[in-house]
Design brief:
- It is a single chain.
- This protein has a domain of 116 residues: Isochorismatase-like (Rossmann fold, 3-Layer(aba) Sandwich).
- The chain contains four helices and six strands, in the order E-H-E-E-H-E-H-E-H-E.
- A six-stranded parallel sheet has the order 3-2-1-4-5-6, sandwiched between helices.
- The N and C termini lie close together (11 Å).
- The model has no long low-confidence stretch (mean pLDDT 97).
- InterPro entries: Isochorismatase-like_dom (IPR000868), Isochorismatase-like_hydrls (IPR050272), Isochorismatase-like_sf (IPR036380).
- Belongs to the isochorismatase family.
């Protein structure tokens, strides 16, 4: 079996700066920290995906919101892959980095459920990463005009799970 990689998608300061709080924000942050601790303790590579969009002041390079969130600060040796679309693979170095690491399984967590997280899960599957895990209690979003954040998270866990990813709770994720 190849290498497992923890993929932390868009856990950036902007996500914590809005008036509306992320769904289950404190719980999700605690789970993201637990995943990082588990990965680091076993030497599992961690890749941070950082959304960069010059047209959006919250995600403009070097803005306060653009920075990886302090709650999951990368270590100096951990990779940061910048992206400018919802897909972490599209026009980024992610595929190359994963090949370099010999990765065959991604453990996926982060923000926002219905945008970058969903698109990356589907794209990874289509690119041949078909043994991935979505950490069902370590991703979040905000309310939309149509659905509550709770409904969005539940819907995406249901749609992605057992199709594009396996679903595991943080407590059940083990790196070796």
């Amino acid at each position: 079996m190849g290498q497992t990689v923890l993929l932390m998608i868009d856990v950036q300061q902007a996500m914590f700066m809005y008036d509306e709080k992320l769904y289950r924000e404190q719980e999700v942050v605690a789970h993201l920290q637990q995943l990082l601790d588990k990965a680091r303790a076993t030497g599992t590579p961690v890749i941070f995906v950082q959304h960069t969009d010059e047209a959006d002041e919250d995600f403009r390079e070097n803005s306060v919101g653009w920075a990886i969130a302090d709650v999951v600060r990368p270590l100096p040796h951990e990779r940061i892959v910048r992206k400018s679309s919802w897909d972490s693979f599209y026009q980024t170095e992610l595929g190359h980095v994963l090949k370099e690491l010999g990765a065959d399984q991604l453990v996926i967590a982060g923000m926002q459920t219905e945008f970058c997280l969903d698109t990356t899960c589907r794209s990874a599957y289509s690119l041949g990463y078909q043994n991935n895990v979505l950490v069902l209690d370590a991703h979040s979003t905000f309310n939309s005009k149509v659905l509550s954040s709770e409904q969005i998270v539940a819907h995406h866990n249901g749609m992605l799970g057992n199709r594009f990813v396996r679903l595991l709770a943080t407590a059940d994720v083990h790196f070796s």
